[in-house]
């Protein structure tokens, strides 16, 4: 029987022969390194989980968790903020949209930071940005101050997320990689689901400023742990910063998110029989700008000796398909957190606190099962745990879809609990399998790619769910009326169909990756 771990097996069965050779050399080397740093210097990975690694994951995990938590927590505060700052729904939404944009733009910079700075330096920069954002939000007296606070937080989270995964990939024993990736990915899976719960409960009992202030002590604890534990096990070099590449990448992302926003406005205007000519032209212009800016970025990246993000990772077929599946899963999960909280309030008449509590059971159970999924990957390989878990995720959505809309909302949430169990046991493993398909030298770039598109997937999920509800609600009276509530439930049904299709597509994407991986393994043998 082979003694290779599942992740090593996945690594050697990709299209990168250099990665395969490196893993085999690591396995056949009987020399035991004195420490993790020495292990990496001779081409090996650590053989045990060190205390500093655990503390590093905790420190970066807290920072990333708080950043993502505030992403969905703020959504529940929108009605309060609209009243206090006298802003519209379209304006207040930018507290989340702008945050996601900042995260998506900054994450690619993490690959440069990984090559240019030590992990501790990157950690300090991210922590300062996150704490500054929380502090400013806690004293914000107008919308502009709060918007700036959210952008600062977004910049910090954009550095924190990839740093957490880079530490795990660089310093974990290979036989425990799935387990530790499961713990790290729990942050991405659970924080968005807990956000509405925390925001709803807190908004019921305290001023919204305190919600941000109370998170600062957790960040201080994380800062102390990180300063003492975070290490760097890779060389760093002085490199010029590719500012022009970042500018075009940022333009492309911003145009993409604005295009999604305008698409919703266009559909609503058409339903209201308004003139849509100007909206259509604006939408077309944004789409063209997005495509052109991305094309220029790809061109500049290909000609650069030190690109902002190595696009070579996309040449690996299994990596590409795992990436597609990962983004689709994140799109559905962020969209579901929006859908359930809004559908319960606008369709079933619940309070904001109840709306937040609806997703708490699924979030907590999912948190417990995330590392279990990683342990199963370490034991059985990637394919079986991922495909079985994704089947459960699809089953959960179908349960929600086929339970009649007029039953108690808590009964319908049973399906969400099933979905979260399947999601958390497949989400982290999908990323692990994708990163195992590329050479270790490209892990930082692959990690940045996963986290960047994850944020854009979240923006798409929120927009699509909002679009389904707004289309159904159009022309059905005022908020709170019986017709409006029934229309909201109908919109929820449409949204559940959409997310079910997304999860099915994610299943097919992962299946495509595994089939290609198996064919390549046969050719290599």
Keyword list:
525 residues, mainly alpha, Growth Hormone, Chain: A, disordered N terminus, disordered C terminus
Give an overview in words.
With 525 residues, the protein is mainly α. It folds into two domains: 49-231 and 306-524, Growth Hormone, Chain: A (Up-down Bundle), CATH 1.20.1250; 243-305. Helices cover 80% and strands 0% of the residues. The chain contains 21 helices and no strands. It has helices at residues 6-12, 17-28, 36-41, 51-76, 78-85, 89-92, 94-116, 119-138, 143-171, 177-205, 208-213, 216-229, 243-271, 277-303, 317-348, 352-358, 360-380, 383-402, 409-436, 443-473, 482-524. Helix 7 packs parallel to helix 9. The model is unreliable at 1-43 and 520-525 (pLDDT under 50). GO terms for molecular function: transmembrane transporter activity. Keywords: Membrane, Transmembrane, Transmembrane helix, Transport. Residues 1-30 are annotated as: Disordered.
For CATH, the homologous superfamily of the largest domain is named as MFS general substrate transporter like domains
Described by strand count, sense and barrel closure, the largest sheet is: none
Secondary-structure-derived class? mainly alpha
CATH architecture of the largest domain: Up-down Bundle
Q: Helical amount among residues, as a percent range?
A: over 70%
Task: Tell me the number of structural domains.
Answer: 2
Shape by Cα distribution: globular
Low-confidence stretches: 1-43, 520-525
User: H/E element string?
Assistant: HHHHHHHHHHHHHHHHHHHHH
Instruction: Report how far the terminal alpha carbons are from each other.
Output: 16 Å
Determine the mean pLDDT: 80
Query: How many alpha or pi helices?
Result: 21
CATH topology of the largest domain: Growth Hormone, Chain: A
Share in β-strands: under 5%
Rg is: 23 Å
Number of beta-strand segments? 0
Biased composition (Polar residues): 1-26
Domain Major facilitator superfamily (MFS) profile: 56-518
Region (Disordered): 1-30
Membrane topology: Multi-pass membrane protein
């Amino acid at each position: 029987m082979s003694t290779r771990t599942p992740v090593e097996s996945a690594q050697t069965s990709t299209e990168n022969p250099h990665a395969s050779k490196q893993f085999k050399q690591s396995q056949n080397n009987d020399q035991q390194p004195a420490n993790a740093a020495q292990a990496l210097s001779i081409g090996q990975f650590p053989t045990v989980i060190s205390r500093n690694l655990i503390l590093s994951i905790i420190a970066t995990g807290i920072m990333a968790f708080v950043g993502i938590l505030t992403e969905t927590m703020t959504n529940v505060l929108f009605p309060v903020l609209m009243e206090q700052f006298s802003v519209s729904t379209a304006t207040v939404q930018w507290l989340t949209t702008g945050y996601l944009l900042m995260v998506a733009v900054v994450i690619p910079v993490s690959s440069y930071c990984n090559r240019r700075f030590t992990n501790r330096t990157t950690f300090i920069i991210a922590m300062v940005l996150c704490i500054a954002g929380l502090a400013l939000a806690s004293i914000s007296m107008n919308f502009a101050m709060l918007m700036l606070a959210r952008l600062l937080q977004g910049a910090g989270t954009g550095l924190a997320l990839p740093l957490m995964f880079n530490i795990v990939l660089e310093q974990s024993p290979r036989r425990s990689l799935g387990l530790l990736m499961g713990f790290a990915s729990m942050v991405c899976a659970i924080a968005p689901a807990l956000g509405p719960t925390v925001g709803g409960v807190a908004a019921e009992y305290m001023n919204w400023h305190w919600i941000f202030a109370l998170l600062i002590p957790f960040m201080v604890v994380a800062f102390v742990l990180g300063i003492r534990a975070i290490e760097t096990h890779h060389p760093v070099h002085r490199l010029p910063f590719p500012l022009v590449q970042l500018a075009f990448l940022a333009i492309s992302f911003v145009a993409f998110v604005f295009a999604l926003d305008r698409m919703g406005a266009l559909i609503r205007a058409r339903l209201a029989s308004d003139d849509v000519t100007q909206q259509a032209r604006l939408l077309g212009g944004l789409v063209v700008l997005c495509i052109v800016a991305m094309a220029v970025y790809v061109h500049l990246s290909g000609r650069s000796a030190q690109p902002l993000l190595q696009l070579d990772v996309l040449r690996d077929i299994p990596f590409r398909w795992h990436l597609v599946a990962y983004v689709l899963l994140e799109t559905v999960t962020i969209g579901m957190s929006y859908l359930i909280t809004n559908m319960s309030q606008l369709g079933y008449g619940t309070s904001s606190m109840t709306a937040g509590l609806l997703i708490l059971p699924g979030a907590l159970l999912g948190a417990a099962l995330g590392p279990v999924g990683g342990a199963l990957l370490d034991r059985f390989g990637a394919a079986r745990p991922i495909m079985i878990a994704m089947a459960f995720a699809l089953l959960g959505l179908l349960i929600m879809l086929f339970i009649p809309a007029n039953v108690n909302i808590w009964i319908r949430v049973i399906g969400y609990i099933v979905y979260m169990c399947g999601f958390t046991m497949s989400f982290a493993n999908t990323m692990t399998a994708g990163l195992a398909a590329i050479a270790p030298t490209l892990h930082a770039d692959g990690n940045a790619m996963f986290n960047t598109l994850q944020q854009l997937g979240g923006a798409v999920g929120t927009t699509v769910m909002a679009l389904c509800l707004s289309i159904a609600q159009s022309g059905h009276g005022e908020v709170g009326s019986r017709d409006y509530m029934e229309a909201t439930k109908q919109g929820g049904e449409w949204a559940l169909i959409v997310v079910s299709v997304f999860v099915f597509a994610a299943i097919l994407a992962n299946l495509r990756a595994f089939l290609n991986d198996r064919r390549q393994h046969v050719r290599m043998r």
